[in-house]
Amino acid sequence: VRDGDTIQLGGVTYRLDGIDAPEFDQICLDDHADPWTCGVDARDQLSKLIGTRDIHCEDLGLDKAHPRRHIGICTADGETASLNQSLVRQGIALSLEPAMKGRFKDDEAGARNDRRGLWRGCFVAPQDFRLGKKAGVLLGAACRSDKDREIREVLFPEEPAMPPGCSIKA
Q1: Which letter does DSSP use for residue 158 in this model?
Q2: Chain centroid offset of residue 130 CA
Q3: Across the strands, what pairs with 59?
Q4: Considering only CA atoms, which of 99, 141, 145 is closest in space to residue 118?
Q5: Interacting residues of 72 by C-beta distance below 8 A, sequence separation 6+
Q6: 122: which of 61, 92, 101, 157 is 20 to 30 A away, CA to CA?
Q7: What single string gives the DSSP state of each residue in 76-101?
C-alpha cells in the first residue's frame, strides 16, 4: 500500500479508480476540532482492508496523469465490494467524478450522512490539498464558518507535519 488510494501488485502500481483519498501528508480535523493525520490514516485503513489477503485488480489501462501507474478496480479475496467502494463507504475516500460516472456517489452520501471517516470532522478535498487551494470548500460535519481562518491554518500549515518517527530537517 503506497497511500490511501494507491497499491502496488508485483511490478504494477494501481491508482484505485473513481476515488480520491487524502494525500499522505494531508491534515484534517476530527469531530473535536483536533488535527489528525488523515492521509496516514487513509493508508492504514487501506492496509487493514487488505490484511493478508490476495488482491486482484481489473486493469483499466495507464493513468494519463501518471503514466507509470495503472488505473484499477481492486478487490480483496473473499469480498464482493471493491477496495475502491469500501474506502468511500467508510468515509476514508471521496467519490471522484467523472471516472466512475457516479458509481460511488450513494456510498459517499451514506458516509457523509452517517458522519463516517473524514465526514465526522473537517477537511478539504484531496485534490484541493494537492493543488494548494487554500480557499477550497471545507467539507465535513465539524466545519464551522465562524472558525474558517483558524481551520484553514491547520489544514494548510506553513510547515507540514511529519509522520510519527520521521525526523527530517529542512
Answers
A1: S
A2: 12
A3: 72
A4: 141
A5: 14, 15, 16, 17, 57, 58, 59, 60
A6: 101
A7: ETT-SS-HHHHHHHTTSSEE-TTTTT
Residue 58 has φ and ψ, to the nearest 5°, of -80, 115
Residue 67 CB neighbour total at 10 angstroms: 8
Contacts of 64 (CB under 8 A, 6+ apart): none
CA 5: distance to chain centroid?
A: 6
Q: CA 79 to CA 37: how far, in whole Å?
A: 28
Those residues whose C-beta lies under 8 Å from the C-beta of residue 97, and which sit 6 or more positions away, are none
Chain segment 44-61, per-residue pLDDT in tens: 999 999 999 999 999 999
SS3 56: strand
Three cell numbers, residue 55: 488482491
E strand segments, the chain: 6-9, 12-16, 19-20, 28-29, 35-36, 55-62, 69-76, 94-95, 123-124, 138-139
CA-based nearest residue to 115, from 154, 79, 143, 136: 143
Give Cβ neighbours of residue 133 (< 8 Å, ≥ 6 apart): 124
Phi and psi (nearest 5°) for 19? -135, 160
| 123-148 per-position pLDDT tens digit | 999 999 999 999 999 999 999 999 99
